[in-house]
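F.,

This is the one I mentioned.
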């Protein structure tokens, strides 16, 4: 019997996490995908009151803990701007999960800010500017530890209108395989 899989789809706000999971729906939705933004929208629709992103985040963590306890495969979308999912990757590994990291980066926070602005104009959810500016560098700071904790990794650059481009892969038991040309944020992939 194959082990359950815990996948983390990560990157700063506006990098294209939800776009990637929608684009590769057949791959990512073989198991539950916990998306705090989608959960926040659902919670607000159910209660007709303004709920915080914090409440949606707590619901994601409770759901993730239940999946881990039941040894069920699942994925979670995160900015990776805090240590919560680093600890969860470690715990999943200890529970015998195969852990995967899909990280999407961009060359500058300005790219992400503009994408979020356009998303809001099209009726999508907003992220306060101060949160975007705070989370962007924190996400990259947590990337290397997450890479070390995950069994397998795929790194995408989504800095241009061309879309997600693979810039690195780490397969189980193998060293990092960078794909040139590397964007500045992914230079650590060269080792």
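My design for it:
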């Amino acid at each position: 019997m194959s082990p359950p899989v815990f996948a983390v789809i990560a990157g700063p706000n506006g990098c294209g996490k939800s776009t990637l999971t929608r684009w590769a729906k057949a791959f990512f939705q073989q198991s539950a995908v916990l998306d705090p933004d989608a959960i926040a929208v659902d919670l607000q629709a159910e209660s007709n009151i303004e709920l915080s992103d914090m409440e949606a985040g707590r619901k994601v963590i409770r759901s993730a803990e239940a999946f881990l306890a039941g040894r069920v495969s699942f994925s979670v979308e995160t900015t990776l701007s805090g240590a919560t999912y680093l600890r969860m990757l470690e715990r999943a590994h200890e529970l015998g999960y195969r852990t995967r990291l899909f990280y999407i980066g961009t060359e500058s926070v300005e790219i992400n800010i503009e994408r979020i602005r356009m998303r809001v104009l099209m009726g999508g959810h907003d992220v306060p500017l101060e949160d975007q500016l705070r989370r962007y560098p924190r996400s990259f700071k947590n990337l290397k530890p997450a890479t070390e904790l995950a069994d397998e990794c795929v790194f995408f650059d989504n800095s241009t209108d061309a879309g997600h481009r693979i810039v690195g892969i780490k397969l189980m038991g193998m060293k990092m395989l960078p794909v040139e040309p590397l964007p500045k944020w992914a230079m650590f992939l060269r080792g």
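DSSP finds seven helices and seven strands in the chain.

Talk soon.
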